[in-house]
Amino acid sequence: MTGTPEKHAENWDLRHADFNDNDFLYDVYSVMRGNGPFARTDKPFLPSNPEGAWVAVGYAECVQILQDWEHFSSNPTPEGAERLTGDLVITLDPPRQQKFRKVLNPYFSPARMKALRPEIGTETDRLIDEFIEDGAGDLAEVAWRQPGIVFFKFLLGMPVDDVPLCVELTDTALNGATEQDRMTAWGGLYRHLHDAVTARLDQPPRDDMIDVLLAAEIDGEKLAFGDVVSNAMLLVQAGLETTASAMSFAYHYLATNPAERDRLIAEPDLLPRAVEEFIRFAGSIHGIPRTVAKDVEVSGCQFAPGESMIVNYASANRDEQQFPDADRCILDRRENRHLGFGAGVHRCLGSNLARLEFQVGLERVLTRMPDFILAPDRQAKFHGNSVTRGFRSVPVVFTASERSR
Ligand code: HEM
């Protein structure tokens, strides 16, 4: 550790090497919240503002900002806008943003999700089959591959063989060591999706999200081709790493807390609540920027047009004012209005899908390898000083059993 929590709290830098330790990052958040609801960073990790940004770290302030899109716009600053490749649902404000959501929403409806449950079970089983007979395996493989396979195969309409490349490009784009690495990976992902969408232009329509975007009309106009590609790219990015890192965290937690694992097996009705708690606790997203659009005051602090604000969902989710015993993962936590999926007009479009993938991912592992524990002779690998944080390896041992097919 090169800095104290107090030092890091003065100028938060999520990519700092010290934050490869998850507990330490949350110690820093605790100091930041103790100093007041808004901290500063001169190293915003997404294209934002060369002058740095405010960081909202308290739960109440984050909720207020997320619900007030008229003062806290999702439009980027001019510096951020230069890097955008199209009109994205996540960087628009209502009313246009709501029209984009209307296009995509039916794909995430509860009925559609319910119908997917058996398919997700089969895909998860297939991944577990790769090591179930060995009595040893890596649960990070399930966490990192299952969401991509499910999303590409059943919703987006991209070949499943593309998943590893897209996961790798997304990962480097978000977490690459240098700005150059990250920009190159963004470019690679854009080109890949550009080619995939172009190939679809000559094919008969199918019932998937790429076709829905290609056919969509907003205010009587079809979406520009670049907007179709950019939104497909957003979906890939939003849907893969977030779910994967939270699920990897849950597998690690259960592999190192066998009593909690046994409790979930004995009380399967707890699963939905446990998934919410894992999402609160694992902290998939540490911040997404807003731009101040009009003079505004929040909790006695004044903000002026053009300033950047990073909403730190992960810190808000550990705010003791909202979550008693916030630094404990309590699988049956009752009051859990976490901000893991955000709030307000941009609340996560894929939350129903993420919850389902997560629940089925846990259910299948708990059913098929009920005594799994962290392999005593191997180390789990956590990747932390990055935008998405989770385990890249969760080596486990368990009683071997048969493949599902
Ligand atoms: C555990 C998994 C996930 C977490 C923690 C998560 C978190 C979030 C958060 C915090 C936001 C709000 C962003 C903002 O305030 O600007 C968001 C938006 C979004 N998420 Fe997720 N997400 C997850 C999974 C998914 C999945 C599986 C998909 C789709 C495949 C998805 C698609 C989206 C989209 C399209 C938006 C933008 C919505 C809008 O701007 O109106 N997410 N997500």
UniProtKB/TrEMBL annotation:
Species whose genome carries this gene = Mycolicibacterium parafortuitum (Mycobacterium parafortuitum)
The name on file for this protein is Cytochrome P450
**Similarity section:** Belongs to the cytochrome P450 family.
Query: Which InterPro entries does the entry mention?
Result: Cyt_P450, Cyt_P450_B, Cyt_P450_CS, Cyt_P450_sf
Give the UniProt keywords, A-Z.
Heme, Iron, Metal-binding, Monooxygenase, Oxidoreductase
Transmembrane parts of this sequence: none
Question: Matching PROSITE patterns, A to Z?
Answer: CYTOCHROME_P450
Q: Which GO terms describe its molecular function?
A: heme binding; iron ion binding; monooxygenase activity; oxidoreductase activity, acting on paired donors, with incorporation or reduction of molecular oxygen
